[in-house]
Design brief:
The strands form 2 sheets. Strands 3-2-1-4-5-6-7 form a 7-stranded parallel beta sheet, with helices on both faces. A 6-stranded parallel beta sheet has the order 10-9-8-11-12-13, sandwiched between helices. Helices cover 40% and strands 16% of the residues. The protein has 13 helices and 13 strands. Helix 9 packs across helix 12. The protein is of the alpha/beta class.
């Protein structure tokens, strides 16, 4: 079988799912150029073929897809107008899927998309594939029937982070490292400046042993503080030696449709501190059991939850760690592959 993805920015977790899918056939991925602020170096097997969109004219892409003769086409969103044109000839001939991670907010832009969906989505795609419940509502608003909407589009490399969980448990059964961890880009919408401010305020008001380690890069200048350590951009294969020395994961985003990183660090056994804007919160955070949530841009709330974590004993942190790890197992790459097979089989039956 030939599986075709029309993709924007590649991610390590997506390629891991494709690796699992490649046991069923060849995975073809047409993708955008690598993001300069997240210059991941990807590894893939011989059954995953990657094509840089910029190296092809539209006509060449059209011929490429014709030559591949895919059994299914999965398109990441509708931002790329070329992708929409490329999908249209295959509508109702093979399963065509649009992936969407946007929440329904009822904005003017979304209401316009709702009105015009029959002209740019419903005449191109037979299915919608979304990460979770928050996106299902938008897919319904766009006109997709409930049975044509699948969840679980984003899934982490569960095996990798489960191994990290085991290695962390061996090292830190009762003596957890006193470090918070942030992994993400340095932008306003990620709320990282709110985190820095909250952490510095806490250290000023209630000095303690805890540190904040941050992995990422972006337009914001890193906050300077003796207990805040910045590592810059780190390749996935180089993460473990750093994150093994941390204990609680925090993502203070002001805007975050999903965030696969939440499942990753839940799988690794990190208690979670998440803003209520983080979409993955609904699947991987159980309030009070494996972490806490707070309102976006609320420095005071962030500070109070940092303080709460600091006050917990090792037994409670261990309990939260185990619960995070359990919550992360809800979604696996095999489930992701099964969803694609179910769509193909269901389409062929009809």
């Amino acid at each position: 079988m030939n599986f075709l993805f029309l993709y924007t920015e590649l991610a390590d977790y997506f390629l891991n799912c494709c690796k699992h899918l490649s046991t069923k056939g060849t995975v073809h991925i047409i993708r955008w150029p690598v993001n300069k602020e997240a210059p991941f170096k990807f590894e893939h097997n011989e059954f995953i073929k990657i094509y840089d969109k910029n190296n092809y004219t539209f006509s060449q892409l059209k011929e490429l897809i014709k030559a591949l003769s895919p059994e299914i086409i999965i398109c990441s969103g509708w931002i790329d107008k070329d992708y929409l044109k490329l999908v249209k000839p295959y509508f109702k001939k093979i399963p065509t899927i649009v992936a969407c991670d946007t929440h329904w907010k009822g904005s003017l832009k979304q209401r316009i998309a709702q009105v015009f969906s029959p002209l740019f989505l419903k005449n191109r795609f037979t299915y919608a594939w979304v990460p979770g419940k928050p996106q299902q509502i938008y897919a319904r608003k766009l006109g997709f029937k409930a049975e044509k909407i699948k969840t679980g589009f984003y899934c982490c490399d569960l095996e990798k982070f489960n191994k990290l969980y085991c290695s962390r448990r061996e090292k830190y059964t009762q003596n957890f490292p006193k470090r918070f961890l942030y992994v993400g880009r340095y932008y306003d919408f990620k709320g990282v400046a709110d985190l820095w401010e909250a952490f510095i305020q806490l250290q000023t008001e209630t000095p303690n042993e805890w540190e904040l380690w941050c992995l990422g890069t972006g337009s914001l200048l890193p906050a300077e503080h003796p207990k805040i350590k910045h590592f810059g951009f780190v390749q996935p294969q180089d993460l473990n030696p750093i994150v093994e020395q941390c204990n609680v994961f925090i993502l203070p985003s002001r805007f975050e449709p999903w965030a696969v990183v939440v499942q990753e660090y839940a799988a690794a056994g990190f208690p979670l501190l998440l803003s209520k804007e983080v979409g993955a919160r609904e699947m991987f955070l159980e309030e009070g059991k494996n972490g806490f949530s707070f309102n976006k841009q609320n420095v005071s709330q962030i500070k109070n939850f940092l303080k709460k974590i600091i006050s917990l004993d090792a037994e409670k942190l261990e309990e939260m760690s185990r619960h995070s790890h359990t919550m992360a197992q809800k979604l696996t790459p095999d489930i992701w592959v099964n969803t694609i097979e179910e769509i193909i089989n269901g389409f062929n039956k009809n």
